[in-house]
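stuck on this:

***
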Amino acid sequence: MAFQPWQGGQQPIQPSHQAPAMRASHADRERAVDVLKAGFAEGRLQQPEYEQRLARAYKAQTHAELQMLIADLPVGPVPQAQFVPQRPAVPATFLPMPPPVRTNSTATNSMICGILTLVTGGLTGVPAVILGHKARAEIRRTGEDGDGQALTGLILGWLSIGGWSLIILMWMLILVASV
């Protein structure tokens, strides 16, 4: 009989049709323990059976012993059936109110400056336009409310600027004509 050096010269080599049981490593035991933990967490194993299998996994010497402990458990994730309720479990009456959408403060300031152009003689027209453009960019980026306020500030601001431009142009024409 032929002996392998790691067999110590005492044990015969087993015939090829009977493969020797492969010894389990620490990593193999940990993988089996992970499968057992997942099975316990999913409710597939009761506490006493889980503890018994866990103890046997740490004592296992071969892959066959480990395989025997986890053979009836899924090794990977098991797809869960998707539950789509036909109607909400709680009537809409009792659901909490959705959080209110915040209004952009720059849009509000633009509208205030646009309205004040009537009182200030157009002095706040330029800030209304600047704030209006800034507010509309912020609203597009953040999804806040207030686009109507920003647009109001822009329109009143541009009307003020256009009105003053027209008045200045008229004065210049009058000055040129009088000379």
Remarks:
- Residues 3-16 have pLDDT under 50 and may be disordered.
